[in-house]
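Task: sequence design from structure.
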């Protein structure tokens, strides 16, 4: 369903074996420090735009984060934010095996997942989620569970398809939603930041959406107006941090789908009208941003949760067309195939 115009070669290995940001490239970190991520430094002073704001413009793809780090932490890692050296070595070996799929398919004259999925170098993070302390999504509220159970998606196993209501917004090539759009996926990880006086725009390769973030202090729009990506307002803090608060998310049973490694298997994560997201884009070097956010949705989750990712500038990265489902026929094909499978419509004889 999510076909795209892919880069070749697809496998984009980072140069450093411990990619994920210079702040984490410390293979010798002591065992007792593995529960703590280094705090972002305030020492770096980015260049300023002609109108006097920190200059974050450029290409900041997150494909280097696609090295099998899960959204949620495995139980055996407890409250540890970082892998031990032995655990990292095991992950690096797994990533190396995944990387070989491309060459193996080429040598055998086939094309499969190796040509489809991008894999980057391993890093030492145990999960992208940093809070709660166990690195896992909080439990759903009773209403959150009800909304999740009502969601329909191609990710769900064994689900029949009869109408467009049986597909989530990503299936329908509308939006990956929030906060999902800010996480790496197995392809289309391009991010590009544009700025003009009073405006920051973040272009995302997945679904070709662009987040428009006013930084000029304008008033919020009415709460009854909902958007797939919400309505954002930004403010500059100190000399190197952009703080973005986003509300006005479009609620519904098919509102978002996290879909990154380690997401809940069904990927059915609803969003309510009360959801609120606070992000911090903290530039700590000329080519590094520490990106952190906290997601609050009291209708869906029993408590807020937070995540952190280390962005790296790569101005050579090219954003290609995201074609999704060409011809707009896939929803119909899913429905017809599902009905035929259930014997509701006859299948033409060969």
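Answer:
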């Amino acid at each position: 369903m999510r076909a795209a115009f892919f880069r070749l070669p697809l496998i984009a290995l980072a140069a450093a074996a411990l990619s994920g940001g210079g702040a984490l490239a410390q293979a010798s970190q002591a065992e007792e420090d593995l529960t703590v991520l280094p705090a972002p430094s305030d020492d770096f002073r980015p260049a300023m735009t002609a109108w006097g704001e920190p200059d974050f413009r450029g290409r900041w793809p997150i494909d280097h984060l696609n090295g099998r780090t899960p959204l949620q932490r495995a139980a055996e890692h407890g409250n540890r934010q970082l892998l031990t050296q032995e655990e990292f070595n095991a992950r690096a070996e797994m990533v190396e095996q995944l990387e070989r799929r491309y060459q193996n398919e080429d040598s055998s004259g086939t094309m499969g997942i190796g040509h489809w999925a991008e894999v980057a170098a391993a890093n030492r993070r145990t999960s992208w989620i940093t809070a709660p302390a166990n690195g896992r999504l909080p439990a759903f509220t009773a209403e959150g569970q009800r909304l999740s159970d009502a969601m329909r998606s191609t990710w769900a196993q064994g689900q029949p398809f009869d109408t467009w209501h049986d597909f989530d917004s990503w299936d329908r090539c509308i939006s990956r939603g929030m906060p999902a759009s800010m996480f790496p996926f197995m392809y289309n990880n391009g991010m590009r930041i544009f700025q003009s006086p009073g405006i920051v725009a973040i272009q995302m390769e997945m679904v070709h959406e662009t987040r428009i973030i006013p930084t000029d202090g304008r008033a919020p729009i009415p709460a009854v107006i909902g958007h797939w990506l919400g309505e954002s307002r930004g403010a500059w803090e100190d000399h190197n941090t952009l703080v973005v608060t986003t509300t006005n998310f479009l609620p519904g049973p098919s509102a978002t789908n996290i879909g990154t490694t380690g997401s809940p298997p069904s990927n059915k994560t609803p969003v309510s009208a009360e959801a609120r997201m606070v992000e911090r884009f903290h530039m700590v070097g000329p080519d590094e941003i520490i990106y952190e956010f906290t997601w609050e949705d009291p209708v869906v989750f029993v408590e807020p949760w937070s995540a952190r990712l280390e962005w790296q500038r790569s101005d050579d990265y090219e954003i290609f067309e995201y074609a999704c489902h060409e011809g707009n026929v896939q929803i119909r094909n899913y429905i017809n195939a599902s009905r035929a499978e259930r014997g509701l419509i006859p299948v033409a004889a060969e």
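The radius of gyration is 21 Å.
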